[in-house]
Amino acid sequence: MKKKFYLNNFKTQWIKYDDYQINIDNNGNEYIVPNKDSNYTIYNPFEVSDKLLFDLIDLGDEALKKDSDKNIIKKKILLFARNYGLLGLISSSVYNRNIIGEEKVLFTENNIITKEKLMDTSEYMSLFTPFALEGDIYTRTFDDHLTVFKAEDSPKFYGKRPLILDVVFSKFYAEQLNWIIEFAKNISIHLNQLIIYKNISLTEPVTIMAGKFKAEKIGFTISMFDKPEINWEFDSLESTIETIYAFALTDESFILTRCEYCKKAFVAKSEREKYCSPSCRNCINVIKSRNKKKLIKDLNENETAEKNKLTKNDIGEVKGVKNMKIDEKKKEAIYEYKERKTTGGVYKITNIVNDKSLIRCEIDLKSMENRFNFSVSTGSCVNIKIQKDWKEFGAKAFKFEILEEIEMENDMSIIDFKKELKTLEEKYISEANKENLY
Fold this sequence. Notes:
- This is GIY-YIG nuclease family protein.
- It comes from Romboutsia sedimentorum.
- By secondary structure, the protein is of the alpha+beta class.
- It has 3 domains: 1-276, no CATH class; 280-339; 343-436, GIY-YIG endonuclease (3-Layer(aba) Sandwich).
- It is 40% helix and 19% strand.
- It has helices at 49-64, 70-84, 89-92, 121-128, 164-168, 177-198, 237-250, 278-308, 318-339, 365-378, 387-393, 414-431; strands at 10-11, 14-17, 20-24, 30-34, 40-43, 104-106, 118-120, 137-142, 145-150, 175-176, 219-224, 228-233, 255-258, 265-268, 343-351, 357-362, 398-407.
């Protein structure tokens, strides 16, 4: 079961449209821009922090493939924009806070837009509004205050946030596909390098991809309603994602890593968790099993070949060959025993009618799940704690769920493994709502 992470006490606002399209400007650059008939939604990126981050890393992973499919990448970008909006690179790529009303913009170091340091503001704005016609978007000054006028219906913040965001949130704002791809690739590469550094012994701190992640112009306030919240004032979704990524990496309750089978990013529950899902764990076990069978087959074929070379004078040694074969089978049995991994963990049986749950640890999770399925099929209760509700609501009212899996180490005794499982069970029980436990 994939663990999710949320930054519950964080809040910010961003805008997404329900439909986007890909257009090509006069220079052949591919842009993504909202459709004219699309509608916008204001949302809090922190409420979807896990999905937002994993979708971006997935896009970066696809772009990093040597045989990457451009059509797949375009579809992923369109889907990402529909779910989260554009990155707001016009704001995050320069040091200027407002941009509008200033003659020139000063670029941040290592930005993904250009290698130039300075650019005229009008030229810079045109990079992000290549399909806007005259009169679609312009500025006017009233009582010494600049205002952005847009020939369409989109949000305005009236001084609460930088004026440039009125442009970012308009249907005329566009971003090049290459810019979005580059940002996604940077996050993916950063995670890959971080995992490498975690697996080696460092003698001093190392800054990974120095200068690539240096969010500028971030502010925040603390608000109070039913609980204190940090209201972040980001000028771009890019900076928001970088902040989410930084918290996901450094929060000790999260372990952001990659699955050893499918290589997708996921949040592990412990350092021992190597696979993002039971399916990936099963796939790697199948591969190990096939490799072992192939090795044994090759050994047997070699043994048969050697046996066929025997001459009549060697007949007396055939019996010894047979004994060798028996010894090989013994070795195979020993090999299988040693290679067999004991996988235990914590499971939860939930009553889907009243939402009450039973949380327990088990030294063999697969056997426990089989016992549960057998109990459901026969109608016999699997645990006395839930017997009353089992009779009242029926077996079909209960579902089985694995909360966490861990493998017993080769040098660990059964007693120590049971103690570790019990500690893990107590952890999940302490985190659960006591009123909803059997």
